[in-house]
Structure formats: C-alpha cells, structure tokens
Amino acid sequence: QWLSDRKKRALQKKDVDIRRRIELIQDFEMPTVSTKIKVSRDGQYIMAVGTYKPRVRCFDTYQLSQKFERCLDSEVVTFEILSDDYSKIVFLQCGRFVEFHSQHGHYYKTRIPKFGRDFSYHYPSCDLYFVGASSEVYRLNLEQGRFLNSLQTEASESNVCDINPVHFLFAMGTAEGKVECWDPRTRNRVGLLDCALSSVTADTEIEGLPSISALKFDGALNMAVGTSTGQVLLYDLRSSNPLIVKDHHYGLPIKSIQFQRQLDLIISADSRIIKMWNKDTGKIFTSMEPEHDINDVCLYPNSGMLMTANEAPKMNIYYIPVLGPAPKWCSFLDNLTEELEENPESTVYDDYKFVTRKDLENLGLAHLIGSSLLRAYMHGFFMDIRLYHKAKMMANPFAYEEYRREKIRQKIEETRAQRVQLKKLPKVNKELALKLIEEEGEEQQFSKKRKQKNLPSLLKDDRFKVMFENPDFQVDEQSEEFRLLNPLVSKISEKRKRKLKILEELEAQGQEEEEEPEGKASDAESSESSDDEKGWVEEVRKQRKLLRQEEKLKRQERLKEDQQTLLKPQFFEIKEGEEFRSFKDTAKKQKLMKETLEDRLKLEEKLGTLNVSDTTVGSKQATFKLKKSEQQRKQQEAEKRHRQERKTLRRSASHLKSRRGRGRLFH
C-alpha cells in the first residue's frame, strides 16, 4: 500500500501477479466519490452516481466501457432503474428534487414537500413511495402525473423503505427503530415490528437508540433489517421475533443488505466491512475489508460478482467463484481463476520481510525504527529482504552452517522413520513421554473393560510432536516453577490411579454406578481430600525452604568471589588545557543535576551567572552568562592586571609632568 504508482508500474514488468490483474470495465470510477451503484434488470448496464460534480455514469458490459455520463444539479441520495435497460431512471436528490431521465437525457423534474431519504416503486399501480424527514409517506403516481394522498405514520422520521416483489407489501424503517408494514391496496397499516428492542441481546453493547438504516425483502416471507448500531435482524413475516440477530461488532450503521440464494447467504455491509453469513445458522462464510469506506454494495444477479461504491474514485469489483459463475460478458474469469489456483505465483510481499521489534534488536537494527527503511505494520515492520539477509549474515555469520546441519539431521531422521521401529522413548522429555505411555496403557485397559473409545495420545498427535523433538521444549526440572508444581501433579496422578482402582473394584462386584463413583461417603472423601491437601501443602513448603537455602548459598558464593577479586587501579586521562582539581567536582555536578529547576536557578543567581529581571509588559527576562574555562579565566585575570599596571604608569607619568611645569614657572 505504500508503493507509489511509478513503482507499481515498474513492478508490472517483473511481477506476474500484477501483470495478470484485469481491468474488467475501462475507467470504472468517479472523479472523487461514488455513492450508489445498481445493475439493470437485463444485466447489460451498470449505473453509478457520485461526485464531484454530481453525475451519473452508465457502463455497457457488452462493450466493457462507459456508455454515457450525465451531470446533475445536486447530489443524488438514491436512484432506481424503472425499465429493463437505462431508458427510464428516477433520481432522488438532496435538495428535495425528484428528477426523471429517459433514454435521451433529462425528462422532468419536480419537488416533494420534505427532504427525502429513500423511495420505492410499486409496479402494479405505478406509484412512487417517498420516505424522509417527515411522518408522512408521499405517493407520486406516474400514470396520472400527480401526487396522491399521503400515508400518515406514527414515526417522526423514516430512513429506508422497500416493497416485497411477491405480494407488494410496503415496509418502512423509522428513526425510532421500528418497521411499519402497509398494504398499498387498502392504504392501511397491517403490522408493526419493534426492531430496536429485539436487537439488544446479552452479547451486544449499544449506545443510544438503534434506528433502522437498511431494509430488504427476500421472497414472500423473509425480511432483513439493518440498524444504525451494526446489527442485522432476519425476520419471518409471520412472527414478531427475529430468527437471527447478527452483530458486525463495529458499531457502524448497516449500509446495504443483499440475499444470495444459491448458497442461502446474506451479504451485509457497513462502512468498514462486508460480511457473508448463512441465513439459517448465522455462521460466517467469509468477510472482506476494502481499503476505503463502503457506501453501497451491489450483487450482480446469478453470479459470484460483487461491486462496491466507495469513498474513493475507484469502484471495486470482486469475483468470488464459490458464490457462482462469472457473468456471461466476462466468462473468461472462470478459466483465469482455475489457472491461478493451479499455478501459484510470487507476490509483491516476497520482496519484503516482516520483523518484530525483538527481531530488530537481535539484528542490531533497532536504530532504523522511524526511518524510510522500515514500514510499520500491525505489531512489527516490513523491511527489504536484501537488507534483512545482509544484517542476518553480519549478526550471525555461521547461521547457514547451523541451518544446513539441522536440515541434514532432519533428513536422516526422516529416513530412519521409514525403517522398522522399536518402541523407544524420544530424545527430548523422556520422563514426560514415559509418564504419558503409562497413563495411556492404564486408560486403554480401563476403556476396554467399559467398552469406551480411546482418547488420542499426545505422543501421536502432530500438534505436540515438536515437544518431543526440539530441545528448546525440554522441561527444566530444576526450575522453581517445576519444583513448586511437581507435588501437585504427583498428588493428582495418585488420586487418579486410586480412583481407577476403586472403579474397577466396583465393576468387578457388579455394583451399579452412583453419583459418587469412589464408593465412599462424602465425609470420607472430604477427609481424604483434606489429608491430600495437607500433604501437598507440606511438600510445597519443603520445596520453598530448599529454594531459599539454595539462593542463600548462591549469594554467599557470589560474596566470596567478590572478596577474592582484587581491585585494580584505574587511570584517567585529563584533557589538554584543563587542570585536575578533585573527584568531588563530578559528585557536585551529579548532585546539582538532581536538584529542581527552581533551586538551580537560585544557585546560578547567587554565583552571578544568571540575571532575572521584570520587563515593562509584565513578563520575566533571564540573562545567562556562560561558564568560562580555567585557562580563559587566568587569561582574563592577566589582562586585567596588565590594564591596571598601564593605568598606574599613565597616572605616575602625568604626575611627573605636572611637577616639572610648576618648577619651571617658579624658577
């Protein structure tokens, strides 16, 4: 992401992955920002609106290029394609304007009483339903060309609306977190859902009242609702309780909801992430986080292609083969994805190495933090792979030899594994392996008698294989942690063995299992457990006492070594031109540095190197005199004595002249 455009173009000659990137539609972008994106019903045209200046662009998928562009007077809130192609379009603009476009261009423009936020088209009656900053739902009949009586709702404001494509039920989401359903035939409300209350679950943290920000029907009975706090609720219209409540965990308003029927998925998006999840179980299928904020998501019908409108000039196109085939106008994508899966190529990250701060300290490159050679990313940095190899060679020149020896040893071990093997303990953690083998044998005998399945062994589990092969995982039995925990582990193993024996005796006698399988009364069990605890506590105390004694012995040994070591005299060289006084000067300087700024300033005032005075404005003025070296001080004193001597000589000479003049006059 930090690569410049020039660097990316230069990489196209080398990187196969960059050369294989395809620009499906030429100039598929907006000047600044794209806000909404839709596909016509025949699938041939993709239309998008954005800024700046406000405009609409139509792209022809058969020609893979832009068909036309039209500029508008104000920004578009949302739009709808009424025909199968681009010949009839309705735009809802932010200035309360509703603009109609035909195939040739602008057709008609009108206004609604309040600011609109969304609208839906009712095909049987040719009515447009507008919702916005009002309690009314405005109806505009396109056949008669006039406004009809509005629907009066209980909401103060409405954010979104949708019409069911099967039975044409009109639903609208309000700012109070409710969904009102209306029958367009009778113009009466037939249902009310309180989604704000249903979105609050035990796992969600909500600040403020959730309002409805997205609404979408699926078939005749399903409806998905998105809230402004980042929850998606899936409803069956026959129930007032949601089937599933899915939280995005970002606290951002849901911008778009789409249904993918081939895999029964719901695609929900907020401004940061696109999540795909199963509508029956709520299990996440996958998720995508684009580089820029998302404004709208459009799923191309009957395919695995996804398009997004972003807070950036470029509109993104994603193709996910699992969701469905590629559209017929770019069917070559299927072949390309198969080739990419068969032949994985290197990526741009092969030229960089990810290192943590600890790795940089080991390589001696911690001083490069903050420079252009390191790029901060997550919990570490990206650095050039060539610089990394050079630094590693300088830090550890014999690393390759060690790596080569380790690889040879691993190859030999692999060839040995193919031979007929006898049961023997591993080289690392032999005591632990022996303990596991014994426990496994006991559990196998017990499970055979009870006809139970054997649990998998740790020695055969690949996840723990390294623990018995790598010497770095060797258990240190002399460590303090092991010695303190060992009494507890041994007591637990003894208790387990005792329990197994008691269960075997009970089965041999043919007794039925009870709540207390040990066959003892709870008092006896508690007394036994208390005895075990006492013994364990005594053992831990004993180990702690031994650890203290060992630490005391180590301290005594260190003291003896310090006493035996002879202190050698140290010599210090004095700089030229300086005079040695004593070691007390350094101690005085260190003591002075520990003082506060106020105390140091007072001391400087006493010495005469600092002069603090008030100005006429009311502020303070501080004048500092730099400290002079001993040589400079001596030179100044000599100059001062020389000036005084010259002064006395001048005075004596003038005195003699005056006396001679007086004598001549008298004579």
From TrEMBL:
Domain named Nucleolar protein 10-like second: which ranges? 348-396
Q: Name one GO cellular component term.
A: 90S preribosome
The gene from which this protein is expressed is Nol10
Q: Which family does it belong to?
A: Belongs to the WD repeat NOL10/ENP2 family.
Q: Which GO terms describe its biological process?
A: maturation of SSU-rRNA from tricistronic rRNA transcript (SSU-rRNA, 5.8S rRNA, LSU-rRNA)
Domain (NUC153) spans 461-487
Q: What is this protein called?
A: Nucleolar protein 10
Ranges of biased composition (kind: Basic and acidic residues): 627-642
Write out the biased-composition intervals (Acidic residues).
507-517
Q: Which UniProt keywords apply?
A: Coiled coil, Nucleus, Repeat, WD repeat
Which taxonomic lineage is given here? Eukaryota, Metazoa, Chordata, Craniata, Vertebrata
Q: Where is the composition biased (Basic residues)?
A: 643-667
Reading the lineage from the top rank, the first entry is Eukaryota
- Give the Nucleolar protein 10-like N-terminal domain ranges: 1-343
Is Secreted a UniProt keyword of this protein? no
Keyword Disulfide bond listed:
no
Instruction: Tell me where in or outside the cell this protein is found.
Output: Nucleus, Nucleolus
InterPro entries recorded: Beta-prop_NOL10_N (IPR056551), NOL10/Enp2 (IPR040382), NOL10_2nd (IPR056550), NUC153 (IPR012580), WD40/YVTN_repeat-like_dom_sf (IPR015943), WD40_repeat_dom_sf (IPR036322)
Region of interest called Disordered, as start-end residue ranges on this chain: 507-536, 615-667
